[in-house]
Amino acid sequence: MKINLDVVFKDFENEDVKKQIVKEVDGPDGKKVVETKDVPLTLRIVCTDALMSMPKNPDSFTGDQKVERYELAKRIYEGGTIDLEAEQVALLKRLIGENYVPLIVGPAFEMLEGK
Fold first, then answer.
1. pLDDT (average), residues 21-39
2. For residue range 72-82, what is the model confidence (pLDDT) as tens digits?
3. How far apart, in Å, are the Cα atoms of 88 and each of 34, 75, 85, 96, 112?
């Protein structure tokens, strides 16, 4: 199934949902400072974040499963429209459902189902 990963999530007032990105950078005096910026939340971000999350029971998380998630996250991180297998869509839906609030889960499921 073809999925557009660049779709931006909207709230109930049709405003872009934002994600705050926090990173440490070198300040003008050479000391480290924390920089934050708000970016529109896209399906690409939601999917890669969900794939990189740890399960509730990490002991059952095998190395092969980690590699599978990593490889899929690399593909998704590129953005654009990609083709996903039904099993990959099911995995993404499960992980998004476990890691996000309803405002994100509902639209994400619709996007992943091609609605």
1. 87
2. 999 999 999 99
3. 35, 12, 5, 12, 10
